[in-house]
Amino acid sequence: MSTQSGTWTPVNGSPRTSTVRGSCCFRLTKRRIPSVIAALERRNSTRSSLIPSGRGGRAYPIQHGGSFPRERDAKARRDIIVGELAGGRNPADALRSLLETPQITTVARVRDEYLASRRKDPNTLKSKRTALKKFCERFGDRDPHGLTARDVIGWITELEGGYKASTINLYALEGRLLLDFAKVAENPFRDANVELPKQVRDEPNPMPADHYLAALDTLGKKWRLAIVTIEQGGLREGEAVHLRWADVDAANSKLRLPRSATKRDKNRWVTLPAWLMVAIEATCPLEDRVPERRVFQGLTEASLYQAWVRACRNAKVPHYTVHDLRDRRGTIWHHEDKLVARELAERLGHSDPWMSLNVYAGAMTVKEAAPETLRALL
């Protein structure tokens, strides 16, 4: 677009506004760069104002600037075009921006971009997605740059009524990372007035042998082998549920847990009693043990948890979770087998040996269940 200098003057030297059947006529030109802005009337009975405009001389064709049924709308459009031409800009760009719908950035949209940009393992992404789901239930349609510390404090207060401190801290952490990803200048989660609930680590609750056998007796046979494997190997729920035949070393009675299946991204071997490996092999013929086939078919973490809680209730014993079976095995290894801290951490998949000592040193001692009784239940 030409940027030659000049001043705007009316065609006849003075502004002219004429009224013809309720519409107006305007003709403005620019010295050395002829430009025309005119409001005309359609020939039909409907009154409307047409705004043609030109950016320069004959090399620039006259362009349509809009059609309006009211004179004041035509004048408003005329003023926009005149202002753009006077500033040396193309009026078409300004008119196009008026028609475009602005894309509003919301917390939900930023969450989708944030999760798509993460290069994490599926378990970590699942945890992030769950935490951000609760955050977006409250602020999903809000502009992330408009969130304040007062909003965050109110949200945390609501969560304290139904969630543990550890869960709230996890949700707040993911919310803070999300707003950092959105480049929020003043992240409300980092405000000094935002206080998270104090997180107190629960002490381990190892299951005594009599409670363990009583609950195992009321548990359905579909779940027993997986529960006994978790208890004997000190496995996590997800590690047992996603166990594949490709990771079973039946000859040496061992299980291989790859990095993708562990919580700490650290692979390890788990040794099982020989009688338990025989029971696991009996569930699937040798020719059917394809590498990707799961050892415990039809089980999920949620269904296994609910089945064990239900078994404890039916056995009329205190409430225990599946993770308490892992704590039971860790306590036995520490108190009865006298394992050193490093070996205990390697068996349980802990990253820090001191963590293993801190968790199980003060736990109540429990006794080993008789292998004959366990074999009979399987």
Kindly list the characteristics that best describe this protein.
378 residues, mainly alpha, DNA polymerase, domain 1, hpI Integrase, Chain A, three-stranded antiparallel beta sheet
Approximately what portion of the residues adopt beta-strand conformation? Answer: 5-15%
Helix run count = 15
Q: What is the total domain count?
A: 3
Uncertain ranges: 1-48
Assign the CATH architecture of the largest domain: Orthogonal Bundle
Question: In which order are the strands of the major sheet placed?
Answer: 7-8-9
Order of helices and strands: EEEEEEHHHHHHHHHEEEHHHHHH
Assign the CATH class of the largest domain. Mainly Alpha
| End-to-end CA span | 85 Å
CATH topology of the largest domain: hpI Integrase, Chain A
Determine Rg (CA atoms, Å): 36 Å
Main sheet properties: 3 strands, antiparallel
Helix content: 40-55%
Work out the number of β strands: 9
Q: What is the overall silhouette?
A: elongated
Q: Decide which structural class fits the backbone.
A: mainly alpha
Q: Provide mean pLDDT, rounded.
A: 80
Q: What is the CATH H-level superfamily of the largest domain?
A: Intergrase catalytic core
